[in-house]
Amino acid sequence: MANNFIKKSVVVALMLTCVGAAGPAPANTEVETAELLIKLVQVGRGLISEHQATINDAGKGDKGFTGDYVANQVIERFRKATKIDLSRPNSTPQAPLFLAMVESEKEVIDEAQPVINKQGVGFKGVIPAVFARKAGDRFYRKTGIRVKLTSADYRFPGNRPDDFESEVLRIFADTRHPKGQPYSKATMLDGKPVLRMMDPEYAAATCLGCHGSPKGERDITGAKKEGWHEGDLAGAISIVIPMR
User: Fold this and answer.
1) Whether 128 contacts 50, CB under 8 Å
2) Mind listing the pLDDT tens digit for each residue in 112-121?
3) 227 and 120, same structural domain?
4) Is 150 in the same domain as 239?
5) CA-to-CA distance for 148 and 131, rounded, in angstroms?
6) Shared domain check, 172 and 113
7) Considering Cα of 141, then 143, then 144, then 145, what sign does the dihedral take?
8) Could you tell me the pTM of the whole model?
């Protein structure tokens, strides 16, 4: 798949998204849209996690881990997971919105190139959580749809759960809730109808270097480890979509 073709597709779709940003998605697509946006975030974070050692390689300069590479990989992996081909902007009515997320993820990596490629520095601070937060911020500015990571053990103040998120995190922590099952609800936020969805996330082996044991020890970022074990509830991806 050619980089230039994908780049043009993303730009065209982003323009379409901005034109239609004043009107929220039709009610019958909001749950599906939320699920697929979460999938795009998960795919992007997975890429960062897979390439963490390369990103933090102090001896290597240009690593080839560019915004175009990330956009290509996200689109391809999303296609394999969902059968939706975002290299064809007309493949689904939601394609412009999904490509706005791809573009947001691409922009985060483009902006980080001087850091990613800097020699003589190991830990770069380009980690899955930071990547997702920055992509979510950009996506919100483009579309008005909020996407964030949240956890009872939040580190970044902007990831602090609100009342709704705190309650859903308690539901996810309850052993009676099926592990991995998302939670969604049509509700009101700031006086406007919205769909809220949260998808639980669990600690993987790759998370434990920063979030594992011993609890309270400083990790590579300087923060205190939470003492998680593999499979523990780590938090959730939270999304808010305006409804008609």
Assistant:
1) no
2) 999 999 999 9
3) no
4) yes
5) 11
6) no
7) negative
8) 0.85
